[in-house]
Protein 1
Amino acid sequence: MSSLSPSGIKNIHLALCIAIAAVALLTTLLALGGGIPQAQTQETLTITGRVINGTEGATPPEGVAVLLLVSGADSGLIATDQNPTTPDGHFEFQDVPAIGDASYAFSVEYAQVFYGASLSLDDLSGEIQLTVYETTEDASVVRVTNQVMVIADIDEKNQTISAIEFVRLSNSSDRTLLPDLNNMGQLSFLRFALPPLAQELDVGSDMPGGDIIPIGTGFALTSPVVPGDHFVDFSFSFPYEGDELSYRQSLPQGADVYRLMVPVRLSTVGTDSLQAVDSIEQEGNSYRAWESTDFQPGQGLSLRLTGLPKPSFGARLEKSLSSANFWKVAIPIAMGAVLAFLLLFGTLKPRWQAQTPLATSSTGPNQAPVDRESAIQEIAALDERFQEGDLAEDAYLAERETLVARALGHSDPSEQGREPPQRDREVPTDE
């Protein structure tokens, strides 16, 4: 265990004295009411507003809760508060932090729909107003003012088109369209058509809430549509075959204008379903355009795309070879071809063997291929036994002559058309 030196003890004593003096000085300053800067008091304000009903003949909502969220540009959520409306629709928030770069968001729920507004500090000088509406399930209150389909790109190799549709719509009534999925007898939601076998769907909209539901050849949005103008944009891709594609472009909400736009670089692609209009410059890109007007709800049109690029022979071959369906068909066909070749080879093999020096004459009419192959195998085995010294020369020559005759299809060696081998022929022996 270490011990402190006299100098160390002196240093500790000095530090304690300094700390005691500092605490005494701080206590004195606090007693005098000075010495520590006080944080400046946060400036606040009082916000007043009113919730009104925008549907003609409807009464102002009473007792609905108005929610306030105050958020800083960099600091996130700063304050929240919630107050109900009075019988005439008024509300008030007191002691709200007044911050120059803050956002003041107000929201209220009425008839299952959220309404809101986001204001700056300068917008709070007077009475603010929030408007709510009664609801309807009649989708005819919404009409498409402009729908544009843009061909973004074409994958020639895989024969796939990438497209984006920009839809601008308007609810010109004084009621909010509130879809009811439980009432299938009335279509109360927005619907949009897609080309056959479309995929990679991505939807964006300024209408909050709701879901995207696949229906038929397209999709539906269950978002409430409050009175006013809105947008729905969606991108997708779809396949094609050959150099043309036709499909039914349904327009459930109708369209004041329906337009097709194709980049100038896709010079062969076009349509004969719409009228050609002047080219359009957009974000530095040039587009050829076709359009038609005044489509009634549900009328739609038969859209035909022409001049679509075909893949090269190499691309088609590569696509075929990489296709799972190709191998499902090609493998059985290849196996069948191999089996057919083997059967053909087995049929032709005896004829090939007849060309060997051993088969100097044609086979007999009743000679079976299996019997001839057996005779040839026996000759080989007989030669091997004789070379190893297991057979006498006379026995070897006699038996070999018989096997050769059998291999050639003769029942008797004399039928071979040659003299029987001489007994005194030289036979190789093992050295």
Protein 2
Amino acid sequence: MRETVVIRPTSATLGAGVTRWLVATDSAGAQLSNTAVQWTSSDVSVASVGPDGLARGWRPGTVTMTAQRGSAHAFATLAVEPLVLAQISPGGIHTCALTQHGEPLCWGAGDGRLGDSSTAPRYVPARVATPLTFAMVAAGDGSHSCGLVAGSGAAYCWGIDGMDNVINPGPDNTGSIPAAVPGGLQFKTIAVGYWHACGLTADGAAYCWGRNDYGQLGVESTGETCNTAHLPCSHMPVRVAGGLSFTSITAGGAHSCALTADGTAYCWGYNGTGELGTGTTDPSAANATPQPVQGGLHFAAISAGAQHTCGLNTTGTAYCWGAGESGQLGVSFGAICPSSGCTSTTPVAVSGGLTFSTIQAGLGFTCALTADGSAYCWGMNDVGQLGDGTATSRATPAAVSGGLHFITMSAKWHGCGTTNDGSAYCWGRNDYGQLGDDHITSDPHEIFSVPRRVGGTPP
């Protein structure tokens, strides 16, 4: 029988510094093993390809990739262009981003959370295994990521969800690729927490899915339990109780918050450290129904962290509430935490007198941008997540080193931002390559306390 080989895709665009898979099949569409195919690139200085079909762009240009199976050859054209990022979303130990064309990329720890049909980690951006383009992407604190399809607003997720399920094992069962969120809803925005996710429809209705052991889905019960611990959960998006309409939504460690059109903040879920802002730390106090944040403030933005929450009022003044033991609320509780546990159950103004246009609450720290794009962070700094060139935790906003000006910025377990030329920078923890600069270290004491440019983006 005559040997045949086909490459899929036959043509593709790749950002400099980005990896993506090329797949060799026979004429019937069955994927060929790595040992059955030899891969070559016409110019390895533009783009290279490994024995497993993983291509990587190096510099702008066009190459021909060849797959050889015996006497049979197949060809694919790969165009490499400068990598320009329009959005970046750090998660726990991985990061995701969108290119200027809406192509989703992820890097860092593997286990399916990168969506590239592999369980391997990636130290530079890797193309998510989907032909879809996205309007936004969100990396979770845990092991999954989600995005919204450009135009339709359909939600797709990949990785290991809050019910310990591989969201989509893929055709070869080796890793995860994006799968449509069940229910057919269309969202205008999406947020991913540790083990749950939430979205808003065009009319402002809030839906959440995933784990619900603390009411973080905004409902008392879904009638469903998942994983080996039989925790409350929902595989299907469920409407948040209360019938409110929201303009923005955020998902934290085990709580969620949202804003109404008049800037009133509501939160629900875990409240053991006051992250709901309701004046109590009782974790069982009406968690599953949205509760108004106390203090009568009206917010223009809100962000839920692991165990604290922050918001900006209409003049850009920052307020935070919840756990504050590392200074993440932007106020000092003194050298020794009081018996109450360094928490604030209602919003407190961040010290320093700065005003901001964007704020992001992460794991024990907070970052924000001023109107000119200058980044400031405060809170825990044991792995350089404040980006100020030190490992000193701070209760007052500290300027991120380097004098960079960002147009987007986000923070989860590390911080990242994009500049107006499409460059991207990340700082903080990098034990899984989540900073995306092709550097990995096994030294737990090595920190990255200044912004490092994501590989492939403009210098």
